[in-house]
């Protein structure tokens, strides 16, 4: 009974940056939730697990648009973090939460590039959350990124196309309930 808008944002921070900026500034959206996929850096975060990005490290230079004199740590909005925690308990849908990394390059040439991120307890890699969080922070709105693990850097396991299409529904349920709370 609550209207929710679903918007595709394309792939990567430039695309997410455009779409989220326009949703906020042109359409007045105050709560943005990114759902998608990510790759796990840790043995205990398995294929089909849900990861919530409390913060989003990045290798991108996206922050230059905001002329910040130093490093910036983009993070999720507390309102949506609280909502997802409550919804997950009610729906009995577990998730892991912590720092993720938004990277510009999908096919990294250096084989073990991810291990340095994992050593800092970064949970997973994706490509959009840091831009979403920066745009939300600058415009004083709420944002949250949640991903289902589709690839595992330690085991090499990958979700099939069918699994990606048909079995990532818990993330969608959790996102919708979080959005309307």
Give an account of the 3D structure.
- This protein is of the alpha/beta class.
- Helix content is 34%, strand content 22%.
- The chain has six helices and five strands, in the order H-E-E-H-E-H-E-H-E-H-H.
- It has helices spanning 13-25, 78-91, 114-119, 129-138, 161-166, 169-180; strands at 31-40, 50-58, 96-102, 124-126, 142-152.
- The chain has a five-stranded mixed β-barrel with strand order 1-4-3-2-5.
- Strand 3 (96-102), helix 3 (114-119) and strand 4 (124-126) form a beta-alpha-beta unit.
- Helix 1 runs parallel beside helix 4 (129-138) and helix 2 (78-91) packs across helix 6 (169-180).
- The radius of gyration is 16 Å and the shape is globular.
- The N and C termini lie close together (12 Å).
- The model has no long low-confidence stretch (mean pLDDT 96).
| Secondary structure tally: strands | 5
The SS-based structural class is alpha/beta
Write the element-wise H/E pattern from the N-terminal end onward: HEEHEHEHEHH
Rounded mean pLDDT score: 96
**Rg, nearest Å:** 16 Å
- CA distance, first residue to last residue: 12 Å
Please mark out the parts with pLDDT under 50 across 5 or more consecutive residues, or reply none: none
Widest sheet: strand ordering: 1-4-3-2-5
- Morphology: globular
In percent, how helical is the residue content? 25-40%
Main β sheet profile: 5 strands, mixed, barrel
